[in-house]
Structures are given as C-alpha cells and as structure tokens.
Amino acid sequence: MGGEGIRQRVTDSWDHLLETAILAPSPHNVQPWAIRIEDCSTATLFMDLQRALPQEDVTGSFLISAMGLFLETLAIAAAHQHKKLSYVVSEDLPEIPKRIRVADELLPIAKMRLDDESNVKSEFEIDLVIRRATARMAYEATPVPEESLRRLAEVAAARGAIFGSTADRAEIRAIADVNIATIFHDLNDANYHGEIAPWFRCGERQERGHRDGLSSRCMSMSSLELSIAKNAPGLLRLPGLSAGAAAHYRRAFATPCIGWLSGDFWEPMAALKSGHALMRFWLSVTAEGLSLHPLGNLVTNRSAAKQIESITGATNVWLVFKLGYAGNVPRSLRRPLADFLR
C-alpha cells in the first residue's frame, strides 16, 4: 500500500502538467510523444517512431519540432505551478534522420527535470494553450493589423526565426493554386497517400475511436469528401470532380494573409529549437485573437517549396500558413494521457 501511495504521488506530480503538454500541435495530429516518469522530478521524453511520417517528413525535422512544441508547452504549464522545466537532449537526436525510415521504436529525445522555482514566470496563460487550434476553414476578409504583424515578427525573432507575410491578393491566389495542385498531386502519390490515408478520420465514430489524426470535422469537410481522399484519390483527377474539388479547396483557403517562418530548421537541434519558437509564435497568434493553419505540403513537397520561395522571395522557409480571423474553430481530440505513458 505504501508503495502504491508513493507511485501515485510521483504520477500526480507530472499528470496535470502532461495533460496540458499533450495539447501541443503535431504534424497531422499524430501525437508522437511518449513519456516515462522516473520520479517526482525526472522523466524521459521519447519519440514514438510508430507515429513517424518518413515518406513526407523525410528528415524527421517536423517530428523533432513536435518534440520542441511539447517541451515548450510543458515548460509553460510547469511555470504556472512554480516549477522550472529543464532538459538534456539525448545523444540519439542526431540519429533520427537515419532511424526514422527503418526503426519502429521509442527513441529517447530528452531527459526532463522539474525543480521548484518560486520566481519562475510564463509569458503565456494556460488559457492560450487550451484555446490554440488549427483553423482549417475559410477566414474572414478582415485584414490582419500591422501592429499584430509587427509583434509576431518580434516573437519569432526572439527565438531565431524570421516571420514574413503577404496580404497581396495576387500572391495569395498564386499560393492557393500551388497548394491545391500539390495536394492533388501528393494524394495521388502512392508512397505519400499510403502514409497519410491511415490518419484520416472520416466521421465522428472514427474520430472518437482514434482521438488522433485528421478528422473530417476539423478539416471542415464532410465524411464523404474525406473518404474520397482516403479511398479513391484518383477521382480528384477526373475533369468534373477535379474542378469541383478545387473550387471547394479554394473557398476553404480564403484568407486575408499568408505568413511564413524561415531560418535554420533541417538539422535535428535546429528543428527542436524551431518547435519552441513555433509554440511561442502560435500562442502569440492566439493572444492576438487570430488563427493559423499550416500548409505543410508547401514545404514537404520540394517542387512546391521552390514555387513558394519564388512567389514570396523568402529563403529557408520551413512553415507556410494562413493567418487571419476565424470563428468557432473546432479543436482536434487528444488520446488519453495513459496512452502516452511508458
């Protein structure tokens, strides 16, 4: 009984913090984190390579950045309980680009430590973590205020990222065209489709059964539309259906602004640091009352990435996203905390 009581106290010291940390975003909502709690102060963060996306995220950089997103969110939650999170990066981190394509394991990412710190403060309220969401619907036409753009640029720069944006209608239209063409191309690529299709959750039953992945509800699509993308993507290339699907995507793409983040990203440590930067940037977007929707294919598809750099004039872009005002944004579900503990 005594042993169970100690174990419960150890778990309780982490559980509330981890419940907040798993609200962090991840590519396609794959939720790739695993945690092993050692005691009240120490735990190890792992990357669950069963949840990797090696056909799309070929270097593992986006999955590594998800580790940074998680650690930043955990640090914010800890600060609100007067605790300071520190961590030591695993020696396995540089191995991820090689192992992500061949391994099926839990890969250590960081040894984490919590220390009581009465003076620790967070710039971000927990409410922002809870409110943050990926808004995949059409945005309002209201322009993003210049003051908001300036503040967001400062947030990005403070963590080594460069924020750029455009409100030019012709440029936004050109980016939308590239995005639509790239989605249709990638969904008809056997390797890409074979990897992403198992993460599509068509309808409420699938979404609640898995509590991860890309749900039709959060994608602002009907379960039938997502089912076509999952089971019969070739239909998207038929002239009639292709035009109709493109028109649907274009309506959903509506936004007054396209933003991007650029800088060092493609090396493992740079990707981890970029995750910290992105979480702080995204929470700052939320604090401004704005919404954000990453357009991942515009970076992971190298042909599309070159076109985006040509349109924007930016280099080393690692994230492109819609930015603007959106109401009633649906939030993706999360698996229960017990699923993450090892």
Fraction in helix: 40-55%
Question: What does the overall shape look like?
Answer: globular
Biggest sheet strand order reads 1-2-4-3
Regions with little confidence, pLDDT below 50 for 5+ residues? none
Number of helices: 13
CATH topology of the largest domain: NADH Oxidase
CATH homologous superfamily of the largest domain - what is it?
A: NADH Oxidase
Strand content: 15-25%
Count of β-strands: 10
Rounded to an integer in angstroms, the radius of gyration calculated over CA atoms is: 20 Å
Q: Architecture of the largest domain, according to CATH?
A: 3-Layer(aba) Sandwich
Distance between the termini: 22 Å
| Top CATH class of the largest domain | Alpha Beta
Structural class designation: alpha+beta
Number of domains: 2
What does the largest sheet look like?
4 strands, antiparallel
Order of helices and strands: HEEHEHEHHEHHEHEHHEHEHHE
Report what the structure shows.
This protein has 342 residues and is of the alpha+beta class. It folds into two domains: 2-127 and 335-340, NADH Oxidase (3-Layer(aba) Sandwich); 132-324, NADH Oxidase. Helices cover 45% and strands 16% of the residues. It contains 13 helices and ten strands. The chain has a four-stranded antiparallel sheet with strand order 1-2-4-3, covered by helices on one side. Strand 1 and strand 2 (42-48) form a beta hairpin. Helix 1 crosses helix 2, helix 6 (169-187) crosses helix 10 (239-253) and helix 6 (169-187) packs antiparallel against helix 13. The two termini are 22 Å apart. The mean pLDDT is 93.
